Amino acid sequence: MADEQKTRVAVDIYGQTYTIVGSETSSHVRHVASMVDAKMKEISARNPYLDSSKIAVLTAVNSVHDYLLLKERVEELEEELNKLRG
Question: Name one Pfam family in it (predicted).
Answer without folding.
Answer: ZapA
